[in-house]
Structure formats: structure tokens, C-alpha cells
Amino acid sequence: MWNVLLSFSGPVALIQLLVLPFFPESPPYLLLQKEDKAGCLKAMKQLWGEGNYHTEFDDLMKEKAITKGTKIMNVLEVLRERSVYPQLCTMLLLLLSLQLCGLKIFRTANLQESIIPYVSLGVSISELISIIFCSSIIERLGRKVLLKGGYWIMSSLLAAITVTLSLQDWYFWMPYCSLALIILFTVVFAVGP
């Protein structure tokens, strides 16, 4: 029943994709990153209803004043910062261990048992590179764009994975298409959602 479990994320992603355009950007993002005070207040009213949000707005302004002197680090600077090594190691171990959960789908795709560990390692490395890439573009594009685009691409990839897994007995090269689509799905998930 793994295929039912795998397909369950499709309708959930579709629902999120349909309602996402109706939600505003987050108020801290609008104020701290975009420096849009009016947009921040409008987003607060849209998210929390009518009311007086001067306390929350003042808190965000204080946070903006505190972070004004601090430098926003890029990915390479974070990797060079020794104080974050424990957190980076924890995240890396989590990413690597998550890849072990996908071994069943590689077996279902009729891949040779001897290459499955290498495929799993390749997926892990692809996901890690994608996360690093995402952290460098999220400031420019915004979360909403990455989420919306990621969900559209992921839903298309899930449909294609379903087709390639259904046709794997007809063509000898179809398991490799399934594998490529699974890796691409992981990359898109890491960059978007």
C-alpha cells in the first residue's frame, strides 16, 4: 500500500497550492526583509482581523533596529562559522537518515540491490545541495514563490512517477526514469516546500 501513502501527499499539496495565493506574506518578512511598513500592517490585519497591532508592530520595529547592525550571512559564511557546527551536523545526520526511508521505492522500481545504497547517497547529496541553493535564493524570490512553484512541479513529478512505475515492466529503461524523477522530486521538495 506504499503507493496510496505516496499519493496522499498529492491532494494535500494541491489544496495548499490552491489556497496559497490568498494568504499574505508574513509580516516579519515584509517589514524586516522588504522594509514595507504599510504591507506589514495590511498583512497583520488580513491574518489576524481588525484590531490594533501597534504592540506587535513596535516589537518588529525593535527587532529591525536590533538586527540592523548585524550582517546577514550567506551559506558559505554559515558553513565557516564554527559555532553552528553542532546544528549543521544534526541537520546533516537527519537528512542522511531520511534517505534510508526511500529504499522501498527503489526496490519497487526494480533497481539492482547492489546500487540502491549509492542511489540513496546520491539522493541525499542532491537534497543537501538543493537546500544550500534554496537558502541562497529564498531572499530574492520569497517563500511564497518557492512554495507555489515547488508544489506545481512536485504534483507533476508525482504523476510522472506513477506512470513510470506502472510501465516499468514494459521497458527496461523505465526504472531509471523512475529513479531520475524521484531524485528530481527530492530536489524540488528541498528547494520549494
From TrEMBL:
Main location: membrane
Record's subcellular location: Membrane
Domain Major facilitator superfamily (MFS) profile: start-end pairs: 1-193
UniProt KW keywords: Membrane, Transmembrane, Transmembrane helix
InterPro entries reported for this sequence: GLUT (IPR045263), MFS_dom (IPR020846), MFS_sugar_transport-like (IPR005828), MFS_trans_sf (IPR036259)
GO molecular function, one term: D-glucose transmembrane transporter activity
TM spans (from-to): 6-24, 115-138, 150-167, 173-192
GO CC, one annotated term: plasma membrane
Entries under SUPFAM superfamilies matching the protein: MFS general substrate transporter
One GO BP: dehydroascorbic acid transport
Topological relation to the membrane, as annotated: Multi-pass membrane protein
PANTHER family assigned: MAJOR FACILITATOR SUPERFAMILY (MFS) PROFILE DOMAIN-CONTAINING PROTEIN, SOLUTE CARRIER FAMILY 2
Annotated protein name in UniProt: GTR9 protein
Provenance organism: Myiagra hebetior
